[in-house]
Amino acid sequence: MIDIAAQIIKHKKPIVISFILVTLISVIAQFGVSVNYNMVDYLPEDAPSTTALELMEQEFDGSVPNTRVMVSDVTIQEALDYKDKLDSIAGVSDVTWLDDAIDIKTPIEMADKDTVESYYKDNNALFTFSVASGEEVKATDAIYELIGEEGAISGEALNTATQQKMAVTETMYAAALLVPIIVLILILSTTSWIEPVFFLTAIGVSVLINLGTNIFLGEVSFVTQSVAPILQLAVSLDYAIFLLHSFSDYRQKVEDPKEAMRLAMKRSFPAIIASASTTFFGFIALSFMEFEIGSDLGLNLVKGIVLSFISVMVFLPALTLMFYKWIDKTQHKPLLPAFRNIGKRVVKVKIPSLLIVFILIVPAFLAQGQTNFIYGIGEQPESTRAGSDIVKIEEVFGKSTQMVLLVPKGDLGKEENLVQELEGLKPVKSVLSYVNTVGAAIPPEYLEESITEQFFSDNYSRIILQTNTKAEGEEAFAFIEEVQAIAEGYYGNEVYSLGEAVTLYDIKNVVQKDNSIVNVLTVVTIAFVLLITFKSITFPLVLLLTIQSAVWINLSVPYFTNSSLVFVGYLIVSTVQLAATVDYAILLTEAYKENRKEMPALKAIKVTLDEKIFSIAISASILSSVGFILWITSSNPIVSSIGLLLGRGALLAFIMVVFLLPAMLVVFDKVIEKTTWKANYYKGK
């Protein structure tokens, strides 16, 4: 490290210039990175709905409907005109309405009432169709122009369009709120007006390089685009703080700034590498998710942590030595009073702290697994046009989800029996198929292809079900299982099902498997890093229990408040919170371990808390601010839920590190000493 530090100090100008050039290139390159807003694309290739979608694209020209549009106060003829106009919009295909389900040349009063009211009710017409991927914004804008203020749109395409429009605005809004808050926190924690600029420059450079290097990936998910840059900034800002605080300390002991920096790099390296390693391995666990939104985010965060580490250990020392006189010229007195006697007060409540947490752990652990989860993007707020449109459509037509079945073609009698059984299911509003629209008695080969192509391909028959269930939830998922079981009773495993609800059903099954794998990997890898760092069996257990308690309590809150939680957010935060906040525990424990070599346990923990609580509070306040700002600024339910969980989790982790961790270090002092290699604890009284 000393040799590397000497080389960095020697070549400081070329290093700073190189980093600036790479950053500028990265800023330009990031405009070439596309953002994917379609969660379906992140399902594994062998997921049943993915296989079904690929099969339907091969067999049929039409796509699965992903949009509903309601036009108010129209006659049947006017509705047919709207259907033609919708069909002519670029990106829109397979517009389905009442005339596809019944013969509207005959009086509709003679048709099945439930079928009619699935499409036309109280002079309101409801159309369903597909919007092509990548065309969502243009198509929905054109639809709104056609239907006006009185019309309404709902569905996946609108959700995607809404997120695309809001993503850039919300990211800028979040940054505009976040940067001043972080600067304020850093100013309060330093004694130089310019020092926070150095912190943010070092990490900001690594964030921009990370965004630019995504061009080699081609595209990133909307979750990664919204969360990764801000999260990288929050979790790696500590590295810069560690280094510059060490540099500041050595400036008071050593006259030569270069020597002070060399010593600071040597001293801060173990703390920075330990902090980066736990975060690195925690994020690596996300990369093992089968649901690839997690692995996409994990890869970006891992890349970000490596780049932040390099920036802090290479770019920041070079930059600081070039402009350290600015730090000297902008010195100011501490703006906050010193934290004194905190340790003494905390130690007094060590037993109550232990008892309270141990009482809470079991119900929190059980509750966090019983939360009502959302597996999709969640519902849009009613305050938005998208949210109010959903309410409008549901007030007239109720909830509706489409499900498509592909069954082997050929046996019209068997297909008719299946359709009749499906029509008898309670959630089914209507079924659209050849046998109940044209008739099983009429051979398809006698009809024009324009009539049969929506029902038949070379090998499969297509059956479309309109249901009154939500897109997800226990009722929707139970219905999918029931339909699949009925269809398999006729055709075995040659049945394929697809649709928004089926996709969410698959996402649920995939992410529930991911949950176990990711959590185990996170704990095991972080435990391994802690084992190496502390050369102890019990230190890792104590640190992991401290942070994991905060994670469980955080994730149990939705259960006790009877609110739903987006599962992707839950899964990501259960990993990110552990990986990002275990640093607080490491910082306190490393200092305690050194103090314990010179004094008894009680005195050591008091001194450690007085020394380190300020640094931990700064780190926690930055991460918590990041989380709460994401929660406030994002209209995307996934990003918003990640923000809320992260903000609350950072605060809980801080409380646990300040109260639970010291209590365990003191109470289990003798056990820790015996299970730590070369503990060299102080033996006096």
Describe this structure in words.
This protein has 685 residues and is of the alpha+beta class. Helices cover 67% and strands 8% of the residues. The strands form 4 sheets. Strands 2, 3, 4, 5 and 6 form a 5-stranded antiparallel sheet that branches. It has a 4-stranded antiparallel sheet with strand order 10-11-9-12. Strands 1-7 form a two-stranded parallel sheet. The chain is elongated, with a radius of gyration of 30 Å. 50% of the residues are buried.
* Share of residues in helices: 55-70%
Tell me the radius of gyration. 30 Å
Please, how many helices? 25
Mean pLDDT: 87
N-to-C terminal Cα separation, in Å? 38 Å
Gross morphology: elongated
Strand content: 5-15%
Q: How many β-strand stretches?
A: 13
Structural class: alpha+beta
Which regions have little confidence, pLDDT < 50, spanning 5+ residues?
none
For the largest beta-sheet, the strand count, sense and barrel status come to: 5 strands, antiparallel
